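Risk register update: the risk of archive-format incompatibility is retired. Evidence:
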Amino acid sequence: MRYKKTGILLVNLGTPDAPTADAVKRYLRQFLSDRRVVDTSRLLWWPLLRGVILPIRSPRVAKLYQSVWMEEGSPLMVYSRRQQKALAERLPEMPVALGMSYGTPSLESAVNDLLAQDVDHIVVLPLYPQYSCSTVAAVWDELARILGKTRAIPGITFIRDYATDHDYINALAGTVKASFARHGEPDLLMLSYHGIPQRYANEGDDYPQRCRDTTRALVSALEIDPDKVMMTFQSRFGREPWLTPYTDETLKMLGEKGVKHIQVMCPGFSADCLETLEEIAVQNREVFLEAGGVKYEYIPALNDTPEHIDMMQALVTPHC
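Archived output:
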């Protein structure tokens, strides 16, 4: 079918509107209410979420956001807006909208914005390089809910993930090489991916394999000894087992074993955010150095670099 007008929909997770306890509470309530994120029985989860987690966690997380907040706003939002603007400049004849799974701008507002511009085909690019049911599938669910309210739905091209995309891997490799040139080649390059409960993987989520696929492709592109690269998982939440090895525990172990210099990259994050700028760049740095490590650098996300925008353009244009 030949479409009259195609629009591009970039999607990311979302962020609080402000680094305050109230804003964080609103954001976390929506995020942690999604069954794709937490699938615990609602009878058990609602009292725990509303009575314990939100009141205790929100003020603490707000303080962490305050430590990374930029003049323009939340880092994730700042970089996402820059990505949207840069891609729109590359594709002047196509509307480019930005929607977040949680918080603002909502995914629904982004879809409505494109439909208001008479788009009859939407290329959806969730900015999660490695598929997971807790991220990409959540976008799919919300998109189906939104379009379920319309009589005439547009054509949809949904990009599931891009874990081994050539341009993505080359962009990652370029940032690693730049870091090595600036700080020296480390004893170990750690690739820290966001974790998910191990149970999700046991039930069929192929996220761990997609992370391994990215790691293998990046090692090949760097032409580096595989023994000098380690894959770990960060940001676990709750008491059930998550994907291992855990980033923080591994850094502590490496420091204690005498590893002196580590650089950490988070290939699963398309934009820097709380989990990279505070958890990895600050908290985990302290873990490694206090355990005996000497030198630690965080390699930034691809953010709005030209190479990253090149990749997005190359991903969407074959479907336009």
